Amino acid sequence: MNFRDAVNVVSPTGRQDADAVLLADIRAYLGRHEAINTIQLASFLDSDSFDPSKPVVVARSGEGIVGVGTVSPGFNLLLSHIERDEAIAALVASSVRRGIDVPGVMGPGDAALGFAEHWGRLTGGSFSPGMTHRILAATSVRVPTGVPGTWRQMTTADHPKLIDWFANFGVEVDHAPPQSVERYADAMLSRLGQHGGGLIWLDELGNPVSIACYKAPTATGIRIGPVYTPPERRRRGYAGAVTAATTQLMLDRGFTFVCLYTNAANLTSNHVYEAIGYEFVSHSMQYRFHQSNVVDDAENGCS
């Protein structure tokens, strides 16, 4: 790649042949850092065409991709790893010019901050930090000892309990408003999709006490989440045990690595995952956008 080439932004055109080439290029680019790009890559691998309701902006330099931004309606713009700093300004300008409405941005630390700063300069808006995640990955497992009970696969019969658990997870972890927690829980369950599932840990009496879900396979990896234990069942090793069991099952199924996102501020969960073999890959930052009443002309930016 010639790093003197200018950065420009392209998007799906609706032309089948051109979009097929772009999709293949995006998959290859995101696969260079599979664990960092796991959310985006899993989505692009799950379909052989672009969804018109989910905008995609792709920064190119010469013939090569140097950054990708994707948007699901109502969610933060999701940013890939960035291979040229100039890609960030180009992606921001293109997104604003196209009127892509996003509440914020999520992506690798420096890239997400750069995107938020450029967005603020271009629109006159402001931004504030949201949650900081740590992306962790494991290629082997250290199974915790001394945890009573065993695991089984979740079934449809578990769905009512899981809706309750996921609603509580939404309130506790994602601060979901009470009026939308049931919709949040339904969406979390549906996002497991046909490629996902979960293991439920049963205590010595056979009671369900914890769950670790798996979903969104990529080329060689798969992601775990959510992991949830009701508050009254915590501090007994269940979360570590069920996560270790789920990780080992995924590795046994042939995945090279298993990854997960954890709240950087939650020292307990970070310790639990690292104790069973997970290692730090990257930070993932969130920034919330606050619109200004005055919006600069995005055409004056890089496009």
Q: Tell me the fraction of residues in β-strands, as a range.
A: 25-35%
Gross morphology: globular
CATH fold label of the largest domain: Aminopeptidase
Please tell me the total number of domains. Answer: 2
Structural class: alpha+beta
**CATH architecture annotation of the largest domain:** 3-Layer(aba) Sandwich
Continuous helix count? 8
Mean pLDDT: 92
Major sheet size, sense and barrel closure? 12 strands, mixed
Estimated helix fraction: 25-40%
Q: CATH top level of the largest domain? A: Alpha Beta
**SSE string, helices as H and strands as E:** EHHEEEHEHEEHHEEEHEHE
Regions with pLDDT < 50 over 5+ consecutive residues? 294-303
Tell how many strands the DSSP assignment holds.
Answer: 12
Q: Strand arrangement, largest sheet?
A: 1-2-3-4-5-12-6-11-10-9-8-7
Radius of gyration: 20 Å
Topology diagram in text:
Layout: E1 7-10, H1 16-30, H2 38-45, E2 56-61, E3 64-70, E4 77-79, H3 86-97, E5 104-108, H4 109-123, E6 126-138, E7 150-153, H5 159-173, H6 181-190, E8 197-202, E9 208-215, E10 221-228, H7 238-252, E11 257-263, H8 267-275, E12 279-290
Parallel strand pairs: 4-5, 10-11
Antiparallel strand pairs: 1-2, 2-3, 3-4, 5-12, 6-11, 6-12, 7-8, 8-9, 9-10
Helix pairs in contact: 1-2, 3-4, 5-6
